[in-house]
Amino acid sequence: MSSRTMQAVSKNKIVFCAAIALTTLLGGCVATTGPQKTSIQLQAFQSKEFETNKKIAFASTMSIFQDLGYAIGTADIDTGFITAKSPTKQDFVPFVGQRMQDVKATAFVEEMGQKRTKIRLNFVNSVQTSSGYGMKGERDSPIEDPEVYQETFAKITKAIFVRESIEE
């Protein structure tokens, strides 16, 4: 091999090794969001009680999920459980491959008495990655921003008001 060929091969090896090192370094970075919330803290903003019956609360929750663009996966009024998923956003990330991101949502609608119902919501951000080499990864992280839940409950409150007005 000529000296030029050896230099080109060495340069390619260095670039390749640098790319691997950078990918490893970036892949190991984890964003910290502060201390994990306790289950009591989560319940405080994930739950809300309403003065309505279970049928109206359940239908209002389903309707709001759909208004927010979620596809309903399952819904059972007897158990009060609803699962839903937002549309998937897909993009390409250099050195990673394809990245798909969506939000999974659940709701538990529970009768607390004659005209009292409790709704508990849970939103989880889900990210899946896949590369051209067959590697796949998935990371789910709970959404712990109280504002997300407050906004959703505000919409559910309006939907309950409308449904109750119609039924009277």
Can you describe what's shown?
This protein is of the alpha+beta class and 168 residues long. It has two domains: 30 residues; 132 residues, TATA-Binding Protein (2-Layer Sandwich), CATH 3.30.310. The protein contains four helices and seven strands; from the N terminus they run ααβαββββββα. Strands 1, 2, 3, 4, 5, 6 and 7 form a seven-stranded antiparallel sheet that branches. Helix 3 packs across helix 4. The longest helix is centred in the first third of the chain and has 25 residues. The radius of gyration is 24 Å and the shape is elongated. About 17% of the residues have low confidence.
Overall strand count: 7
> What summary fits the major beta sheet?
7 strands, antiparallel
- Label the CATH architecture of the largest domain: 2-Layer Sandwich
Head-to-tail CA distance between termini = 90 Å
What is the residue-averaged pLDDT? 82
Low-confidence stretches: 4-32
Task: Tell me the number of helical segments per DSSP (H or I, 4 or more residues long).
Answer: 4
**CATH homologous superfamily placement of the largest domain:** Kinase associated domain 1, KA1
Name the helicity range: 40-55%
In the CATH scheme, the class of the largest domain would be Alpha Beta
- For the record, the count of structural domains works out to 2
Secondary structure layout plus pairing:
Elements: H1 3-27, H2 39-46, E1 47-50, H3 54-67, E2 71-76, E3 81-85, E4 89-93, E5 97-113, E6 116-130, E7 136-142, H4 146-167
Antiparallel strand pairs: 1-6, 2-3, 3-5, 4-5, 5-6, 6-7
Helix pairs in contact: 3-4
